[in-house]
Design a protein that fits this description.
By secondary structure, the chain is an alpha+beta fold. It has five helices and six strands, in the order ααββααββαββ. The longest helix is centred in the first third of the chain and has 14 residues. It is globular.
Length: 155
Amino acid sequence: MDSKTQKKFKRLIRLLNFYPPYFFSGIKVIDHNEDFTYFKVRLKLTWYNRNLVGTAFGGSLYAMCDPFFMFILIINLGDDYLVWDKAATIDFIKPGKGAVYAKFEINKTQIDEIKNEVDRTGKKIFRYPCDIKDKDGKIIASLTKDVYVRRKVKE
């Protein structure tokens, strides 16, 4: 990835922390690596993202996980591929009573395998699991994201 592209995505990630649905939900990207194959996100429990029983609102728990697998693939596959979220499921395991965290990672080897598979088949849906954990590492919710990838048609 050239430095201009890397700067563009670094800026996008910084701005994401001020994107109203994230900012007003207490969601923040707190870590990522230089090649954008790893992100760590935090949801800080506040008065405006609590549900009726005082725990993390389920929609905020989902929102903190929404774009990151797609981001990783868009950034690392490049302009020759179309990437979009296809489906998601979330299983709420225990109440989120404080700050919670989620990590997202697709390594370079996996990205190369995705390219090879999509180049061979034309398109594919890839499934990624993610756990949302509290500060003690206990699972609050488990999520799966289905991400659709296809090669762009050249005109």
